[in-house]
Amino acid sequence: MFHRASRIILSAALAMFAAAGARAQAPMAKPDLNKLADEAQVWLSDLVRINSVNPPGNEAAVAKYISAIFQKEGISNEVLEMAPGRSVVVARLQAGPLPDPSNALLLVAHQDTVGVDASKWTSDPFAATIRDGYMYGRGSIDDKAMLAANIATMVELKRTGARLARDVLFLASDDEEQGGSASIKVTIQKYWDKIACAYALNEGGRVMLKDGKVQYVGVQASEKVAYNVTVTATGQSGHGSLPRPDNAVVHLAAAIEKLGTYQVPAQPSTIVLRYFEQLAKIEDDEIGKWMRALETPGRADLAVKHISDESPMWNSMLRDTIAPTMLQAGVRVNVVPSEATANLNIRMLPGHSIEELMGQFTKIVNDPQIKFKLAPDSGENAPPSDLTSPLFQTIERLTPQDFPGAITVPLLGTGATDSASLRLHKVQAYGLEPFPMIEDDSSRVHGDNERIPVDGFHKGVVFLYHVVSDFASTK
């Protein structure tokens, strides 16, 4: 009796292990990436049609839509409330029996968008209008295209039964555009255990298209740190008919003229030098010559001037920048105000000191009627990501396969992204905006008539899937 029962239990166990082995050896389904890109375009259209302008954000509506896709595909996910009307989505494809953050990859994109003046657009900014090969809409690039591509990658990995060597995580984040109480920083504080990872892919990179061909894939490995400084001028108030030399508006205008035209000396970082070194290979001979001269003694200063004059973005990558963005003074047209203020939006290279720069402001302006105050909404001074990591090397290796003749270059982001907060948690985070676009399309981010080329979006979905599926299959 005992032996018979033992044989039954043993047979059942062997059958269970055989079934498990058969499942483990089951061949992966071949991905249909053309179909996937078509589906992703539908998801992008739907996401653009959900108004998530921040403030207030309204990310909960976006989160509900994303969660429904994952539920339909059998992908485990959670919708986590950050604040009333604001939710993030976390999902996971697990490589082993237990979560393993030590080598996990996080795909992150934000759900909110900047505001919009619909009167300046040629079509409804929330209609996802397709015209002349483009999809128009607020968030079509920043950042709902990345959101849709990340969804597509998760879905296809699940559908094909991909054999993962590392966990692949998904985060649809909130409040990236304002950085407030629902931001990535707060998400990490509250839910790090759910998104802990070693690597991350986010917005911030670019795939540069010129004359119909991809020139390079730019991978953001570092970003500048944002600060805002309030400049306040004081003077005696009075009637506009009696001008005085201590007029606060006049003193403020003089200070802003000096600061707005002041150029901080260039101090290119290792990543920026590598960027220009790589870019010199594909730029025309004249500008390429100056890019190669950036580290040449006796020619570096002249090289900086030529490169800075060529492009505002290149100028910003080489140095700390100061941009006056707001002015405020007065209550009536015939009243001289006692106070006038301005805002300086400052973007500093990682590791540089805002206090030292503000000390220079005092010397440059040299006016006792002018005071400076650092606003409390400073960015995060994060270390750069590693240019020799397995993830960066995967992107380098796959770039010429998806875009023949293209090279990979590291980028210093001149704006701010969620990657800084991840880097401060020892995550190797990279900006990879995988969609081939011309300069004019990229420059429309945050502007009127934001748009993404439909063909570029499709190619970007495929490229991102290739990168993630390749990287996730190896440790």
Descriptive account of the structure:
It is a single chain. This protein is α/β, with parallel strands linked by helices. The chain has 2 domains: 33-204 and 417-472, Aminopeptidase; 226-374, Alpha-Beta Plaits, CATH 3.30.70.360. The protein contains 15 helices and 19 strands. A 6-stranded mixed beta sheet has the order 1-2-6-3-7-17, sandwiched between helices. Strands 16-9-8-18 form a 4-stranded mixed beta sheet. A hairpin with a 2-residue loop joins strand 8 (206-210) and strand 9 (213-223). The longest helix is centred in the first third of the chain and has 24 residues, at 2-25. The protein is globular and about 85 Å long. The two termini are 49 Å apart.
Helical residues, percent: 25-40%
CATH level-3 fold name of the largest domain: Aminopeptidase
Shape: globular
Going across the biggest sheet, name each strand in turn: 1-2-6-3-7-17
- Strand proportion: 15-25%
Q: Could you tell me the radius of gyration in angstroms? A: 26 Å
Q: How many DSSP E strands? A: 19
Largest sheet: 6 strands, mixed
Structural class: alpha/beta
Query: What is the end-to-end distance?
Result: 49 Å
Second-tier CATH architecture of the largest domain = 3-Layer(aba) Sandwich
pLDDT < 50 runs, ≥5 residues: 1-25
